[in-house]
Amino acid sequence: MSTTDLFNIASMFTEQELQVRDTVAEFVDRRVRPNIARWYDDAHLPTELIPEMAELGLFGMHIEGYGCGGRSAVEYGIAMHEMEAGDSGLRTVISVQGSLAMTAIAKNGSEEQKQTWLPKIAAGEVIGAFGLTEPTAGSDPSAMTTHAKLVDGQWVLNGAKRWIGLATIANITIIWAKVSVADAKAAGVHPDGDTRPDDAMVVRGFIVPTDTPGFSAEAIEQKLSMRASLQCDISLENVELPVDTILPHNPGLRGPFACLNEARYGIAWGALGAARDSIESALDYASTRMQFGKPLTAYQLTQKKLADMTIALNKGQLMALQLGRANDAGTMDLHHISMAKLDNVRVSIEIARECRTILGGNGITAEYSPLRHANNLESVRTYEGTDEVHTLIVGQKLTGEAAFS
Length: 405
Hints:
Blueprint: H1 15-32, H2 36-42, H3 49-55, H4 73-86, H5 88-108, H6 111-122, E1 128-131, E2 147-151, E3 154-165, E4 172-180, H7 181-186, E5 201-209, E6 215-219, E7 231-242, H8 254-288, E8 290-291, E9 294-295, H9 300-329, H10 334-359, H11 370-382, H12 387-399
Protein name: glutaryl-CoA dehydrogenase (ETF)
Cofactor: FAD
Domain Acyl-CoA dehydrogenase/oxidase C-terminal: 257-398
C-alpha cells in the first residue's frame, strides 16, 4: 500500500487494475524520474519515450480493436494517475495521442479511416495532434474562424490554431473547421434529416497530414509550465485535401467535445498523481530534514499539512474511482466529468504548493518535484475546460440555467 493511501483505495482495485498501476509506475520510476528535472529545465520533450509508451499499450488504451488495448476506463485512469506522478507534460503526450487524436477518428471517422490510422498511432508509428483551439477561440470553440471549402472536388482549409500539443512532431493533425451545409452535402457527409439551410456553417473534423503544403506548425517557447512537452501554433494557408479526409460522422461541436470529455476524464485521475508525488516527496524530505534537533515530521504544523493534504488526496482519488466505475458502467454524465476535473486539479495545485513550503528553499529547485508539478498543473487547470467553464457546467446541472454568456 502506498504511504499516502490511508483509505486503502488500492483494495478497491481488481488484480488487472493493480497490474496496470504497477507496470506504469515501474516505467515512470525507471525512465522518467531519473531524467525529468533535466528535461524540464531544458524544455525538452523526450520523444524517445514515445515508442516505449506505445509498447506499454498506452496510446488509445481505452479503444476497442484496431490494435488498441480495449482496457477499461478505470485502467486508463490508473495509468494516467501513475504517468502524471512523473510529469504532467508526459501524461499529456498520451492524452493528445489517445484521448484526442485517436478518439476523434474512433468516434467520428469512417471504417477506412479507422483501419488506416488507429493501428499506426497505437503502435507509435504515427504521431497525432488535435487542432481545435484558436488564438481567439479557446473556451468558445463555436467562435472558431478556421474554415474549409470544397473547391473542384478538394477541401481547401484556411485558418490558425493555438496551443496544439505535439503539432511540430505530428504526422497527422485532426483539424476542426467550419464547413457549409452545401459543401457537406456535395461531399456526401451531411446527415439525413438535418434541415439546416445550405448556407449554415457546421464544425467538422479533417485528418490533415502535416506534410501537406500550406500546413505549418511552430512550437510555443518561453513557457513557465509544461516545459517537458510541446504546445504549438498552427497555420493553415490554402491547405488542399482529398474529399475523403473529412470525418464523416457527428457534425457540429459534439464531435470535438466527445474527445475533450475523454481527455478531461484522464485529467481527473492524472492530476492527483502529481499531487500524490508531491506529498511523497515532501514526506521523504521532512523525515530526514533536521531542525532544532528533530526531523520536520516531528512538528505539529508539518503533520497537520501532511494530514490535510493526504485526506484531500484520498477524497479526490475516491471521486476519480467512482467516475471511472460510472464510465465503465455507461452511467457517467457530463457534470460528473466536470466535477472531477474541476476539483481534482484545483486540489492538486494546492497540495503541490503546500508541499513546496515543507521543502523550504530547496523546494524551488528542480531536484524536488512539487513546484514543477504546481507549475504544470496551472496548464492542466486551463486546458480541456477552465475552472470557469466546468463550474458553469455543474451550475447548469444544479439550476437548469445555462449561464455561459
